[in-house]
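User: quick one, sequence for these tokens?
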């Protein structure tokens, strides 16, 4: 390990030289009480910034043991510290100084969801923060004075402010951890109450905009209506830290969310989609939880499908195309939605979340008149309405469905929730009345059972990460696109993917999966093994380098990314 002075002397020596000379800085430096580790220096000021980390001995950082005494507490504390570090960057650093990313610090600290992330690593002996620094340059010439400022003034101040327990507000850390722990506890209680989701009274579900996931705030545009459970579905759950909480319990089965346009149906569904994750205090969805295996399904025409059994929904395609093992380079709305469902079931999902708005109409419904005009033997599609009940009865897979237009589902619903001016009203009883007055004239076309669930074995050769001269090259382009070798993977239909750090982790995880987990087992078994190792070893098992830019994805999004790789071949 070098001394602090050594770093200072090196920076002065390379001042004014070409940017590449910064490479000399790589190494460890004693910045007592912390260790500075310059892990990887970038070759130019416009490229991704350089990877840097700091390690503080736990004794110095001073976090009481109880703040990280369980897995969930550790995740919550790390998430808190990452956000705190990010805030310290904002407050302390001067921002851009020089060309490109010169002068900037960056930590991958997340948005509304609390995820396991590797930018902050709490180990028994040390707390480590991993971040990026844009080493300053004017054009391509090193600006040593600014670099000195970053390393010797800004960084130690950030570390001091963000990573020492004595400089944090103890109540705020404690509260953060408790809120996260409570959400985890709420989610764990769902099963014993036969619920698939819970929305606490007082929750704020709407978001500021389609591109801003923070809670909507009251404005001239109108009030924000806090959530309130209808009496019929109200239930009390307990929280280890903040005591009992009342709210709407959504039971297992077939649940419809109906109501007029713009009354808050999709807003409720989206909150339920996100309820598979924990949220930061103040998000408004801290008491909205959904079972872990809830999956949002949507239509996605044009997608790739490789050997998926979609026969519960699609049969007798023209020219006898196989639907027990259906493949296509270019799925239609209905076949894409059928494949998405079957792939979710393959991975063990117990809850499908579907919005009529983003579904293929002919997948959702086929009404009596259309049945009369187009005979069943000429229609390959068995609409979801004929399978939704079997899905629950045969496989205990529940569905929450947002509907504005398809009344044929009323026959199959366990509960019907009407959204009226953003508030839920139970209309299950009225729906039964409607069924009696207007009995359906459509014929059930779904047979007597749902059918089997798929299980496939991807071939390891499907995953070629080579690009040009590089044996492994995996990039992410925004939240919803991975470039794996030369294979572009479009994730735009994965609505529960929330952070680019998850997308990155998925890219890396696909490589690990192909390398170590894909041999001779099903997709589900292989990925379960990988996720178990991830749980044990943390996100660092995914990357050969020390990086701080990964957040934990769910097994579902990982599988769904693999399913969308056009190079995927199933044995
Ligand atoms: P629907 O799916 O029923 O057509 P949306 O869920 O898209 O309706 O909601 C319509 C609009 O109302 C959205 O702009 C949304 O942000 C807003 N909104 C939803 N719930 C609330 C609420 N509780 N308070 C205030 N505005 C809301
Ligand atoms: Mg809607």
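Assistant:
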């Amino acid at each position: 390990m070098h001394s602090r002075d050594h770093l200072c002397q090196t920076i002065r020596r390379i001042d004014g030289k070409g940017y590449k000379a910064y490479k000399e800085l790589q190494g460890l430096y004693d910045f007592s009480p912390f260790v500075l580790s310059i892990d990887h220096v970038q070759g130019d000021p416009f490229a991704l910034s350089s990877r840097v980390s700091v390690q503080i001995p736990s004794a110095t950082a001073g976090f009481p043991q109880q703040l990280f005494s369980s897995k969930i507490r550790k995740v919550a504390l790390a998430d808190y510290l990452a956000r705190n570090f990010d805030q310290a960057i904002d407050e302390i650093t001067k921002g851009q100084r020089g060309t490109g990313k010169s002068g900037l610090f960056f930590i991958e600290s997340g948005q509304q969801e609390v995820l396991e992330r590797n930018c902050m690593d709490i180990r028994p002996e040390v707390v480590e923060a991993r971040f990026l620094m844009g080493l300053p340059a004017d054009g391509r010439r090193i600006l040593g004075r600014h670099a000195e400022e970053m390393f010797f003034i800004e960084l130690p101040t950030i570390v001091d402010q963000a990573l020492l327990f004595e400089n944090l507000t103890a109540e705020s850390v404690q509260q953060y951890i408790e809120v996260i722990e409570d959400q985890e506890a709420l989610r764990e209680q769902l099963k014993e109450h036969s619920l698939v989701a819970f929305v606490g009274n007082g929750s704020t579900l709407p978001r500021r905009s389609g591109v801003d996931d923070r809670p909507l705030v009251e404005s001239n545009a109108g009030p924000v209506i806090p959530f309130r459970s209808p009496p019929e579905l109200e239930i009390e759950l307990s929280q280890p830290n903040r005591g009992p909480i009342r709210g709407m319990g959504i039971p297992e089965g077939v649940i419809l969310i109906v109501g007029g346009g713009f009354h808050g149906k999709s807003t409720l569904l989206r909150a339920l989609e996100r309820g598979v994750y924990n949220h930061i205090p103040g998000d408004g969805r801290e008491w909205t939880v959904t079972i872990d295996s809830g999956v949002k399904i949507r239509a996605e025409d044009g997608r790739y499908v490789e050997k998926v059994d979609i026969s519960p929904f699609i049969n007798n395609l023209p020219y006898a195309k196989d639907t027990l093992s259906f493949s296509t380079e270019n799925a239609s709305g209905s076949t894409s939605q059928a494949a998405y469902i079957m792939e979710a079931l393959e991975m063990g999902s117990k809850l499908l979340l579907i919005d009529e708005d983003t579904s293929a109409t002919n997948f959702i419904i086929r009404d009596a008149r259309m049945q009369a005009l187009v005979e069943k033997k000429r229609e390959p599609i068995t609409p979801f309405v004929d399978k939704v009940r079997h899905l629950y009865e045969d496989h205990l897979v529940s569905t929450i469905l947002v509907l504005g237009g398809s009344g044929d589902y009323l026959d199959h619903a366990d509960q019907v929730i009407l959204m009226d001016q953003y508030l839920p009203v139970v209309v299950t009883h009225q729906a039964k009345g409607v069924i009696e007055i207007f009995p359906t004239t459509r014929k059930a076309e779904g047979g007597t059972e749902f059918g089997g669930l798929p299980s496939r074995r991807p071939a390891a050769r499907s995953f070629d990460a080579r690009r040009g001269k590089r044996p492994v090259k995996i990039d992410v382009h925004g939240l919803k696109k991975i470039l794996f070798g030369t294979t572009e993977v479009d994730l735009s239909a994965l609505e529960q993917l929330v952070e680019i750090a998850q997308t990155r982790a998925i890219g890396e995880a696909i490589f690990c999966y192909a390398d170590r987990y894909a041999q001779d087992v099903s997709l589900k078994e292989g990925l379960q093994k990988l996720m178990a190792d991830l749980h044990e070893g943390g996100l660092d098992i995914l990357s050969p380098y020390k990086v701080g830019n990964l957040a934990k994805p769910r097994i579902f999004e990982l599988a769904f990314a693999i399913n969308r790789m056009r190079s995927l071949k199933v044995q």
